[in-house]
Hints:
Oligomer: single chain
Shape: elongated
CATH topology of the largest domain: Fumarase C, Chain A, domain 2
Number of strands: 6
Strand order of the largest sheet: 1-2
CATH class of the largest domain: Mainly Alpha
Amino acid sequence: MSKMWAGRTAGNTSKIADDFNSSISFDSKMYEEDISGSIVHAAMLAKKGIISTAEANSIIDGLSGILSDLESGALEIDATSEDIHMFVEQVLTERIGETGKKLHTARSRNDQVALDIRMYLKKEIDQIVSKIKTLIEALSEKAEENKTTIMPGYTHLQRAQPITFAHHLLAYAMMLMRDVDRLLSCRARMNYSPIGACALAGTTYKTDRAYEAEQLDFDGICENSLDAVSDRDFIVELLSDLSIMMMHLSRLSEEIILWSSWEFKFIELSDSFTTGSSIMPQKKNPDMAELVRGKTGRVYGDLMGILTVLKGLPLAYNKDMQEDKEGAFDACDTAKICLDVFSGMIKTMTVNTDKMAAAASGGFINATDLADYLVKKGMPFRSAYKQSGLIVADCINKGLTLETYPLQSYKQFSELIDESIYEAVDIKTCVEKRISEGGPGIKSVEKQIKLVKEFLKK
Length: 458
């Protein structure tokens, strides 16, 4: 195709320069947004008397036909075109003649691409939020099934205090709920229209930017034309939010990998979300969780890429900004597939409650409850802490647990201890008596599940 921008230069760029300059291979994803934006732009031009109603109708009919043909496969995107904007405009002109050349009045590719990417990413955010909610629902359902499934809670990867599996899963549900809030907040800031800013300084035509913004479901217009075309902070923000979300998925991936190992055996992943070894027939590998963990670095890389592209750019538009799309598209695509895989993996995994309970019964994770018991009997906490530590050390030396430690031995450390100690250090009691809000007690967990369900209904 001939260059529609030929004039000041002949447009006779070399093949290697054409290939290097072209963005059609990736910005063709935005064909629907580009055509939708152009239809509204044509309507605005007619509304303001810049072109005639007949001309606008011809342009709109032509654009609608192009969109229909692209979606049906009757028209294929020309890979030799410079970008999706030039491809659409050129096909339009071929189909309706000289009138097609009037479409680009009072706009530039600079504000056009800024419009398209905002429209495209808004849709991507909506899809990602929906997929996060599906995962949150899977976590809450699995939590509902395991409200009384006791397991060790960990710090430093050492057994710390008893919790429930529901409590652990709900921690991730809460993280993902914040991810949804962040993405929706990002979408709200993204939802301002740059169209009409033109190359950088607006236009001499009396346009109606607010009309175009309203028709395209924006909350308003970008108020400064330089800012409208020259910043991509909304992409940085989106990729930052996706990086945080992927970090949450990666942490849960790491735990799933640990939990499904022979050393833990807390869960078993479905065959549909694991693979085998090419040489070791006994293996059942958590490859999906490992891939999510690995792809987190990929999304981080997309974020660092756009930050690096933007960090030294003077105002306004620079061709460097063509590099904003591939990373953004990749991060969105990666996030979506990871969320889909994760939801299926959580829904189909089997929880080995006996293994979790056995792990909770060891490691003296009820030692804090022993200290609390002494405090409630009147001993200062620091003294109770020290006595509890001495009792644990003695148990270890004698191969005993707090549950099997003789009452007479307990009394050697404090006369405050009586038969009620055994109920106090029972693992089930330790969980049930954690009544503070947000804790693993069943009433608290049920409240958390209710909060999650209410969030999902919003």
